[in-house]
Design brief:
The chain is α/β, with parallel strands linked by helices. About 45% of the residues lie in helices and about 10% in strands. The chain is rod-shaped and about 155 Å long.
């Protein structure tokens, strides 16, 4: 296994290493290569929703393509977060027949039909590429911005990735225009007020929906507790009924014993009466004689 850790100061707070967390093999698949084989920084789009997660993309590559792991080395979300998902020492699978020559950088989203990446994605892609071109000497063949290419630009490729308008927005990665976010060397972020307000409204809506969900679940819990209380009452009633049922044989046995005692008393009374009768008869008959 080869493991190359990265520290990119320009992406401080925006860079997350998911190699050991993401599904699939991030350290061996598809094979381990020499960094001197790398000639390009290949830009891709995920061709899906801009809300896709690294896990979803990796699972798609594994389950639908039959691969051993995610095909890219890096993913960049719409908010500019950079995910390190495939070790740069591995070839991965993102440019047919040229995987050993590229570091695959995928911007999450579908940039066809006039759609383009976010400003945050441009800035993060620029910072990532700049790091490899200017600050990573082990990549001996990456010396200028000419190595930043779209998937479709590479030899033998029929894909339109990362979109039909790639050449029109490629310059935003090479020389980004910082309209909404300005990353200083210290990592200070300046927000566009209008954008910040819209984000606040969006977040407020999310909080409201979350609160509604909590209230609904609380109502369901209350109903469940009421149902459990009713069931508990029924169990108590049933227990009492069973207790009364169990006492019936005891009452029957006690009644039977009482009957037997009364019968014995009657037998004894009859015996005494019979004795008195016989005695009277004996005395009377003897007196008559």
């Amino acid at each position: 296994m080869s493991k190359i850790d990265l520290n990119i100061p320009a992406l401080s707070g925006k860079f997350f290493d998911l190699r050991e967390l993401i599904p699939g093999d991030s350290f061996n698949w598809s094979w381990v290569r020499s960094l001197s084989d790398v000639n390009y920084l290949a830009i891709h789009h995920s061709a899906g929703s801009d809300n896709q997660t690294p896990e979803e993309i990796s699972n798609y590559h594994i389950n639908n393509n039959g691969w051993g792991g995610i095909g890219y080395h890096f993913l960049i979300s719409k908010d500019g977060t950079v995910y390190y998902v495939g070790d740069i020492s591995t070839a991965r699978a993102n440019v047919a027949n040229l995987n050993e020559q590229v570091i695959g950088i995928c911007l999450i989203g579908n940039f066809t039909q006039g759609k383009v990446p976010t400003d945050e994605q441009y800035l993060s892609a620029h910072s990532l590429c700049d790091f490899f071109i200017s600050n990573y000497p082990d990549l001996t063949n990456l010396k200028s911005w000419d190595v930043v290419v779209g998937h479709r630009e590479l030899p033998g490729q029929t894909s339109i990735c990362p979109g039909e308008d790639w050449l029109s927005w490629k310059k935003r990665i090479v020389s980004p225009v910082q309209t909404n976010i300005d990353r200083s060397p210290l990592g200070t972020v300046t927000f566009n007020p209008l954008k910040t307000t819209n984000e606040a409204i969006f977040l407020q809506g999310q909080v409201s929906r979350f609160q509604e969900t909590i209230n609904h679940q609380k109502s369901q819990i209350d109903n469940l507790q009421a149902s459990l209380a009713a069931v508990n009452r029924q169990l108590i009633t049933l227990k009492e009924a069973l207790s009364q049922k169990d006492s019936v044989p005891t009452q029957v046995r006690e009644a039977s014993v009482n009957v037997e005692l009364e019968s014995k008393k009657e037998d004894q009374t009859l015996t005494l009466l019979q004795g008195f009768y016989n005695l009277y008869k004996f005395i009377f008959e003897k007196g008559v004689k």
